[in-house]
Amino acid sequence: MENPIIQTDLGQVLGQINQKLDKLSENVTEVKISQARLEGKVDSLEKEFKAEVQSLEKEFKTEIQSLEKELKAEIQSLGKDVTELKDSVKAIKSSASSQIWALIGVVFTAVIGLIGALGKMVFFPNP
Q1: Which residue, of 28, 38, 100, 126, has the fewest CB within 10 Å?
Q2: CA distance 19 to 21
Q3: Within its chain, how far is the Cα of 80 from the centroid?
Q4: pLDDT tens, position by position, 62-107
Q5: How far apart are alpha carbons 35 and 94 in whole angstroms?
Q6: What is the pLDDT of residue 19?
Q7: What DSSP string describes 35-59?
């Protein structure tokens, strides 16, 4: 068996390889350009995201501070109300105690008066 000899033009083969390499080089360049565009978009989106997060953070801090002020004012108001209720209860207790002693005095006076009237009728009957 004989080996067939294949003859090719080396210049033609190298030309085809160069064309393919040029095409690959163009494709690589396009990929690099696309990558650079994507990186730019990612950077832009990252900046927008950070700005939005900072804005939301400021809004939340402001809202929280406002709520804290409202709660402190409500707590102070409730503290004043509790103090007023304590004072009212003390006043009511004091008033109730005074009223009880006044009532005891009235009842005692009435009983003394009744005993005196009964004693007068029994010891000093009317002729």
Answers
A1: 126
A2: 5
A3: 25
A4: 999 999 999 999 999 999 999 999 999 888 888 888 888 888 999 9
A5: 87
A6: 94
A7: HHHHHHHHHHHHHHHHHHHHHHHHH
